[in-house]
Amino acid sequence: MELFADRAEAGRRLAERLRDAHDPIVLALPRGGVAVAVPIARTLDAQLDVLVTRKIGYPPAPELGVGAMAEGGEPVFDLALLQRLRLTPESVAGVVERERRELARRVRAYRGDRPLPSLEGREVIVVDDGLATGGTARAALRAVGAAKPAKVTLAVPVGARETVRSLRKEADEVVVLQMPLDFRAVGQWYVHFEQLSDADVLDLLGRGGSGGEGRVSP
């Protein structure tokens, strides 16, 4: 299966599949989703913003996500995994609180004091750079859905088949370019997949730290 050169190229290819969107707002999941979303917003001449999410990790092994949260939404847990690990949402309350603080820090870093734009009645495209377990995407979609948009589309370049299938229940439409059978990690499907910093996100958004909003310039 063909690899994406980088997130920008993946975004350009996704944009071709999204041209029928009507005056959408594009919400990128930082950090990697922002690099995919910028060419989408540019192609569609759409408003671009971020929707900040955080994984809720299993305390002994934080890289294992037992849930996730998005700004404006409540924590969304993988209840089957919690049960297998003999945990409850209450037993990871300390992790949730730490991630709430980090989520708030990132919201301030990316948007300053400006709130998330109103999504009510809008067509919303939620963008990430790929789907592995889909925990953060699920939390994002539920937070967006609670804001009463007209339509919610999840757009990603690549995703695990079972994850994509499960997320079709959370969005009006899921647009994915590749669903490889041998999916192991998002990064394996990109030639260049550098980790991004907060500064990189601000540069991509063209805000220079000002927290402004708007359409992406050519």
TrEMBL record:
It comes from the Bacteria. InterPro entries: PRTase-like, PRTase_dom. Keywords: Glycosyltransferase, Transferase. The keyword Transferase applies. Transmembrane segments: none annotated. Residues 9-176 form the Phosphoribosyltransferase domain. This is Predicted phosphoribosyltransferase.
